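Lay summary. Proteins are chains of building blocks that fold into shapes, and those shapes determine what they do. In this project we predict the shape from the chain. Here is one chain we studied, written as its sequence of building blocks.
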Amino acid sequence: MALSVGVAALLLGGPLACTAGGNDDGFDFSTDSNGPGGPGTGSGTVDDTAGSGTDTTSGGTAADAGSTTGSGTDDGSSSDDGLPIEPCTSVDILFVVDNSQPMLEEQIRLRAAALAFVQQIGASIPTLMSDMHIGVITTDDELMVQQTAEVCGPYEGGDNWMASSSTTLSAELDCALAVGVAGSPNERPMDMLFSALSDENLVPGAFHNGFLREEALLVVVIVTNEEDEHELDTSWGSAGEPADWVDTLAGRKGGYAKDVVVLSLIGTDKPNACPDFQWDGTEGAQLSPRLEEFTTSFPQGAVGDICAQEYATFMLGVVPGVTSACANFTKP
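And here is the predicted shape, written in a compact code that computers can read:
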């Protein structure tokens, strides 16, 4: 099958390959609050047959699109456990994209769905008062993917991430997500995620300074076809256990897990769109129970099938849950 110019460029590391820094089913989520760091207990699922091009989503309880469920209201009052609730006024979105072999087709599907996902979030949240921030990191580099004049041109806002108001957002996002497949086979999405959001990278003057905002809902999108498991003999993979990962990420939002949305396109149990053999190192996807546990521990967590023929169904289907999470945001 002939490759398009953009696909060929991505394969060869051509002009669409940005440089890494320095080194619809109307599915909705449960938005019940469990206090600081408290993971949700929702177990609702939406399953589709393998090969259908749709995704398997799991995590919070399904609810009507745009509604809020569980504790708390969205009128500036407080939740059942006394937490102050006030709708978020901004959203920070961080994509964590596997840049190793064989992730080419998955990146193409992500690029096809990402812009509509970002735009739909912006259109669905009436309380947004400032730009959404959109950053991209890879599974082997904690620093956000940059653009240079030699490839796609610098981000319009002058930062190391994109702004939703950018007049060139479509080109910026497409370029940033075209991370290529020359990355390390030692995928460490959790280590990279936490390093990207560490104080070291967020303090004034640091590479990600200004990206993460107190008043913003944090949305993390993980895309990888392999599990993140620490191997003692090789030291490959991220350290820690899923419960530790939940606490660490929630800690970036004051300890409130409900102020974080985690969406993971990973290897899921069958039925899925992967081959019958599931994963042979080249085709399909490795089952990822650790990443799934991490994702679905968040009240607003959802898992999609990375083998699906397209990602728009999953990504647009979870937007109502992002909206609900914003409406139940914990007032800083």
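What the prediction tells us: Strands lie at 45-46, 57-58, 90-97, 133-138, 162-163, 216-223, 260-266, 302-305.
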